[in-house]
Amino acid sequence: MNSETYRKIVRLSGMYDFIFTIPFVTPWSFQLLNHFLNQLSPTPTFAPIHVVFVNLFGSIVIIWSILRIRYPMAIYGAYDAAGRLLFSIWFMTYLLIHAFHPVMFIFAVFEIMWFIIQAYGFWKLPKLAREFSSGSFL
């Protein structure tokens, strides 16, 4: 895989995160999302402390997505792949052990897909492209 193609993959994963994470950033947008999800299948009641953590998660993912959109470096794709692997593990854990909301399965599928694309793409990059990308921004 060439560096420019991989940069496009990193940027696209950032765009995906930005679009799908926006509803988690504010208490009001999360309330709308939660109302919509309740129409599909009941969700648990969220106490204010839960909403704070949802908003913190949303905020940090939005910042991380903007970084990858603006500076789609290969090393960011590698770190994002690692994060997506962790997200996938936790999504699947809650789905299998706690029979969590079915929408979690959709998120898990996308996390696994982005993990595979970015991890494989990084692995297929020439060694020089991987090394150069880690220090070119700093």
UniProtKB/TrEMBL annotation:
Protein name: Uncharacterized protein
TM region positions: 12-33, 45-67, 74-97, 103-123
Keyword Transmembrane helix: yes
Organism per entry: Pseudolactococcus plantarum
Keyword terms of this UniProt record: Membrane, Transmembrane, Transmembrane helix
